[in-house]
Structure formats: C-alpha cells, structure tokens
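Work Package 4 report. The design task specified in the project plan requires that, given a folded chain encoded as structure tokens, an amino acid be chosen for each position. We show below one input record used in the internal validation round.
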C-alpha cells in the first residue's frame, strides 16, 4: 500500500493534537499514560511529538479516555486553526470575520 504524503494542514493538525495530549498529560508519566491506554510508549511519544500526524482513531480514543478528554473537545481543538483559515460563503475566513 502506498501512503500519500501528508498535506501541510494534516501535519499542523497532528502537531496540535500532540501539544494537546502533552498539556493534558501534565506531570503524569508518558509510560504510565501509554500503558493505561494500552498503547506503546513509543506510539504515544510519536503522537505527542507530531511524528504520527494521523494516528488511528481507537488509539486517540484510548489516550483521550485515560487523560479525561472528550473526543468532541479533542476534535474541536485540533481543528480550531483549520476553521480560522477556511473561507465561508462570503469568501472571508474566520480570522477575518473575528477581526472586523
């Protein structure tokens, strides 16, 4: 199977996801978090550093559950910047609408 290269938006979204998980983990050990989520510590490390920009949904669901994050909140936060740069029907982005 050939994987298509990630778009810049996908890479950025992966970086936002990693940052969100790191913040939510706080002082909690990466090892303990990974084991509680039943993922390898290496997988969690790669997600948190943005090296895996498009992790599998069950993986994110398990990590979010361990960290007490709702999937709705995760989705909203990692897609926040996408909405800010997507034009609406008027052709204006969210950032342009907010700054008016």
């Amino acid at each position: 199977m050939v994987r298509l290269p990630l778009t810049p938006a996908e890479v950025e979204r992966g970086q936002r996801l990693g940052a969100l998980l790191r913040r939510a983990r706080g002082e909690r050990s990466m090892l303990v978090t990974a084991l509680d989520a039943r993922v390898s510590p290496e997988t969690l490390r790669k997600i948190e550093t943005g090296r895996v920009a498009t992790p599998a949904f069950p993986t994110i669901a398990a990590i979010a559950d361990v960290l007490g994050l709702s999937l709705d909140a995760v989705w909203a936060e990692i897609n926040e910047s996408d909405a800010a740069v997507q034009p609406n029907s008027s052709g204006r982005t969210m950032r342009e609408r907010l700054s008016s």
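DSSP finds seven helices and no strands in the chain. Validation will be extended to a larger panel in the next phase.
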